[in-house]
Amino acid sequence: MTAYNAPLQDMRFTLNHVVGLPQVATLPGFDVVTPDLADQVLDEAAKLARDVLAPLNRVGDQEGAKLDNGVVRTASGFKDAYWKYAEGGWNAVPFDPEYGGQGLPWTLALPIQEMWASSNMSFSLCPMLNQGAVELLQAHGSDQQKKLYLEKLISGEWTGTMNLTEPQAGSDVGAVRTKAVPQDDGTWLITGQKIFITYGEHDFTDNIIHLVLARTPTAPPGVKGISLFVVPKFMVNEDGSLGQRNDLRCAGLEHKMGIHASPTAVMAYGDNGGAIGYLVGQENRGIEYMFTMMNNARLGVGLQGVSIAERAYQQAVDYAKGRVQSRALTGKDPAPVAIIKHPDVRRMLMTMKSQIEAARALVYFTAAALDNGHTNPDEGARKAAAALNDLLTPVTKAWCTDLGVELSSLGVQIHGGMGFIEETGAAQHYRDARIAPIYEGTNGIQANDLAFRKVLRDGGEAAFTLIKDMRAVAAEAAAQPGDDLATMAANLTDAIDAVETASKWLLDTGKADMTAVAAGAVNYLRMFGVAIGGYLTAKAMIAANNLLREPGADTSFLEGKIITGRFYADQILPSVRGLLKIVTDGHRSVMGLSDDQF
Amino acid sequence: MTAYNAPLQDMRFTLNHVVGLPQVATLPGFDVVTPDLADQVLDEAAKLARDVLAPLNRVGDQEGAKLDNGVVRTASGFKDAYWKYAEGGWNAVPFDPEYGGQGLPWTLALPIQEMWASSNMSFSLCPMLNQGAVELLQAHGSDQQKKLYLEKLISGEWTGTMNLTEPQAGSDVGAVRTKAVPQDDGTWLITGQKIFITYGEHDFTDNIIHLVLARTPTAPPGVKGISLFVVPKFMVNEDGSLGQRNDLRCAGLEHKMGIHASPTAVMAYGDNGGAIGYLVGQENRGIEYMFTMMNNARLGVGLQGVSIAERAYQQAVDYAKGRVQSRALTGKDPAPVAIIKHPDVRRMLMTMKSQIEAARALVYFTAAALDNGHTNPDEGARKAAAALNDLLTPVTKAWCTDLGVELSSLGVQIHGGMGFIEETGAAQHYRDARIAPIYEGTNGIQANDLAFRKVLRDGGEAAFTLIKDMRAVAAEAAAQPGDDLATMAANLTDAIDAVETASKWLLDTGKADMTAVAAGAVNYLRMFGVAIGGYLTAKAMIAANNLLREPGADTSFLEGKIITGRFYADQILPSVRGLLKIVTDGHRSVMGLSDDQF
After folding, report:
1. Which residues 24-53 of B have a C-beta within 8 angstroms of A?
2. What is the mean pLDDT of residues A31-45?
3. Quick one: which of A455, B61, B434, B512 is 20 to 30 A from A176 by CA?
4. Rg, chain A, Cα only
5. From 3.40.30.120, 2.60.40.1190, 2.40.110.20, 3.90.550.10, which CATH number describes the B159-285 domain?
């Protein structure tokens, strides 16, 4: 088992000097976010993550969640941890103060969420799914629904789940078959089976509020015929007390490669006639409502990529400092040295560190766009931020989760043979990380979302606006003294040029040859991700350079930031140019084989 | 559980038309390798792999090997499978006929080995490690040792193991501390602990012959003071019958992320005074002897990357053809289609297929160089082949095993949520594959081997010889009709140019700045691997183009080969150019941070 210490210094630096938390704190409703409060909240979250959640990560992996006669037992210590978390008020961070939420901006909520997922990804999924349910009810629930459910979902007294997937309806949510039949009393009877329901059943709380997609008898086919229902595990009386058990049950838990402590349930609704459900909003608008929380959920999953990579990185650094093996490459001393002294181990650690910091900045940056997109009082700024958030969300989800897999794999590699042994813990991160590129919309779906909905649909407006901002930062970097900034400026400019060329190709090609665009979409998204990561890294380098001139500056940290950024410029950014040819020229052979030639 | 069917058509095509099995069959001693025999051997191996080994792959993953009171029980069915394998003569394929071997070339042995590792990687490790022991004894054992052990290790009646690693001696074999003290009767008493001993204990056979690295009392420090010993589990009488149990035991089995059915043992030698061992060859030459089998072992591990990727690919194809989800991207039909119709799924499958075929060709090509390097009667050709084999071995080991991880990860991704569920089987490949970049010398060590020993040491002679051959094939491709070959010629030439530039940089830089070379070595190896893969793919495309003109040609297969090669040219080769800048320009920031800045 390994320790986890939240990278508070990098988090604060990124929030304050790269993505603009101080600006977010000026938005209406966020004036509570003083620097002191932000510091204090991050410190307290870091303690809970370090002392309570992190020590349970391996226990959870080993024990998993167990289904016994319809009851799910979570791993040892998880229920206690949940209540420490809920009683600390952590469940309420980003929600509406009217229902007990703390009303903090996403820009601050995401760093906190990062700590939960780093310290214990399996645990963090329960609040994360609950968050989706809260957002939906905040936005679309009736007053009565809000009154009955919202306060308890925000306090953590109950938890909420999202029930979308069915065996035949994974990526294609429109294929949902679960039925909802109206009753005379205004309720609906829900029957059907849902799969992959995260924390669909557990022992943390007395009640679980399921949000379920289903079809009403008169619904049109496809995504336009899906409605959203609240289906509580136990019926809730008008006074909020629990009534009888509803007709739903956990019919099984999946045996997964990772996130063992997170119960992934098969949910059976209506074995005995139908589970009682309550329509949310209007009929047939379920998918539209779902998109209310989809962007945030995708941002949260992107964050998991950062979180798991950070945990894997901390463990790899720890191992590389302690493991003594082989003499140094240069010099005459035959004594073996810690492997962190070996250039290739160093390269792997820098590959992790530089990309984790860039990806972290992207998540927080997207969160700042989300906050501004919701509440910036200037209409132009608000719309621009919303468009930026829309553009960035699929990039964040896919790029960061791909990095989660790649970097946790490097974490294993740094451990050598010990990385393959489960007791070490590196392997768990590699296993846990693998789900994130899949759920909440596979990364292939994110790439299509970026290419077709976020770039083609607006004629590239949001993309070219961002590219313009990126060029401004590259120019600013070029104006700074020093070789590190100059290299960043040059390599960032080359990457931006490549992204711009690819984006123009996409706009030229998209309408006539959708297949070519779809075949290149994943690599196009990757180009975008790496380039934006470079843009934010350049911002960080500039900020560090400026801060270094201030008295009392933490030179070790700030110089480290610049060197780490230089590595990103040296070793990560050049891949963008390498992908350009693949995106624009590489599609011709993709569909060339017939099915039976595979 | 998924089926495995050996890709016999691609194997035969690659052997006969890309890497030159017909030429290998003309070498002394290999005249038995007629086309008919090769066909028959491959067919029979494919049956055993499909019918016996593949069905046990998941059983092995679930049950694992168990240690109970010093005795290791392998998973259900494994012992029976071992005896089917041994009684079929498969253990004897590449070995000396004088001791019961079949004397087949490595060029034919490797495709067979590929089937074992594809069908059941955990199982295949037992014969693979045994192979190392046999090679060592063939080359360095005394007549008496050969007589006592070799025949039974070749027949499979006993198995052999390799005992190198100790807790403090992983990559740094020179740090071995196990002791060997001479006795008056000419034997040695061995005491010490070895870890990560593959099949160090099992229930397949009555005896296990351990080859153990240890230090004698007078040994100098480091790699020059290590000797090699034969240490049988049960003493062997002169007539070959078993005597008393030796003083060694399995002290534990590791809990690994994958290859669960392969028992990875902690071996304790000499708990009760010392295990009796017999010196192989001369004192202090153990490491030198070890290199006899190291090249082959590394080639075998590289092959595992191909094997596991092939198995993951077959499963992904199967799933992509059967899973119906979402309508087609183009056209008006709203009905959902099999996901193999979706461009991004297709891209992932092509990414797997094109690189698996290239990597397979590289393994077989290296095997052909190995055979020629051993037995080509023309001295110049023999030396050139040996140099080529030396050059290719680290590339094959590292590139193919990295691909094993990357492509099995794509295999999971193609499955969507089902890929993360253990019952599907895709996850096992992803877990199993992760060990191959680590053992038999980490891929970082392979990269240093390539850069320092295989390129710098001979002033780039072997590398530039290969580059010249590659250019000839690029020119030949350019002279062929058709856009596919023209694209391959152009992109291959660009990749070769990049490899040549990087190699020249390496030669210019290496003596003065070893750190720069070591920091770029992994990416340099990757460039080499991808480019050689392109070279062999171009060869395959040319051969397919030529064969298409013959009457009765299998046009579906041959045209598929060309399209797959085109994809490699389109989407894989361009990454070589992208890595060039990273190798030659990217090293400056690698060592920039102090240890405490991580």
Report:
1. none
2. 96
3. A455
4. 24
5. 2.40.110.20
